[in-house]
Design goal:
269 residues, 8 helices, Beta Polymerase, domain 2, 6 strands, alpha/beta, globular, six-stranded mixed β-sheet
Length: 269
């Protein structure tokens, strides 16, 4: 790889060779080229060494160290945090009048959890799902559009401790984008926003499991033990941690939905 040959300036300076040897231009250009020649030589050496290093290390994927998921004892302030964010979301989406519900472990008194508030937003129709992104991005919620292909029934957002631009993070993760490493840092997250069609299968699943844990202390205790066990292990990211809970969740969610339909009878939240 010759850096000199790739520079238009170098090509121009070497063009003196095509001029008459006794011309004034020939003498001037040759003098200039001889002055710059050591600099180009150093650049060639630098680029050659850089290329060797890149070929050795640059093409290999960067291996991220395993992360531990921090769970905290139940905190009554989580309910207050939900109410604050709920007001913000309600104002941002006022034209749709959505229903909002506190879900996930932070919504279950006595259950340890990641200190990230999970909020369920219910809209009337599937068409309204696509109205939500610009409304929430305008309020600095990071939109994970890349998840839409696998879960077209949901729109997912993350509320960070500061506007994304202040953290040098994008406001939108599009299909095919690499998720910045920084976004895997859960200490930067305040809330996860899950937008679904109201009373859809997935809406009911979240509400049913929350209420099931609230009314079944033995299941809540079993879930607590699993979370404590998993929190001691290292994980690639939060999704990998969730996969560790997947078997338990699917089994208990199935029971929760049956219970919810038979006992709650689809009462308003």
């Amino acid at each position: 790889m010759q850096f000199v040959n790739s520079l238009p300036v170098s090509h121009f300076l070497k063009s003196y060779r095509y001029l008459p040897a006794n011309s004034g231009f020939y003498i001037r250009f040759r003098r200039i080229h001889e002055q710059f020649k050591p600099i180009f030589g150093c650049l060639n050496s630098f680029v050659a060494k850089s290329s060797q290093l890149l070929s050795k290390f640059g093409t290999a994927p960067v291996k991220r160290e395993g992360m531990k998921i921090i769970i905290e004892q139940y905190n009554p302030l989580w309910k207050e945090s939900f109410n604050q964010i709920k007001r913000e979301l309600s104002d941002a989406m006022a034209l749709l009048s959505p229903q909002l519900a506190h879900i996930g472990s932070t919504a279950v008194e006595g259950l340890s959890a990641k200190p990230i508030i999970d909020i369920l937003v219910g809209v009337d129709t599937m068409d309204e799902l696509n109205i939500i992104p610009p409304l929430l991005m305008d309020k600095n919620y990071v939109y994970y559009e890349n998840y839409n292909e696998d879960m077209p029934y949901r729109r997912f957002f993350v509320k960070l401790i500061s506007p994304p631009r202040h953290l040098s993070l994008p406001l939108q993760i599009k299909p095919g984008d690499l998720i910045p490493e920084k976004l895997h840092d859960h200490s930067l997250r305040l809330a996860h926003i899950h937008v679904l069609q109201l009373n859809s299968v997935h809406w009911i699943r979240h509400i049913a499991f929350r209420d099931y844990l609230r009314t079944n202390p033995e299941i809540k205790a079993e879930y607590q033990q699993l979370k404590e066990k998993l929190s001691k292990q290292e994980w690639k990211d939060g999704n990998a941690y969730n996969e560790g809970k997947d078997s338990f969740l699917k089994n208990e969610e199935r029971k929760a939905i049956q219970w919810y339909k038979s006992i709650v009878r689809m009462q308003p939240i």
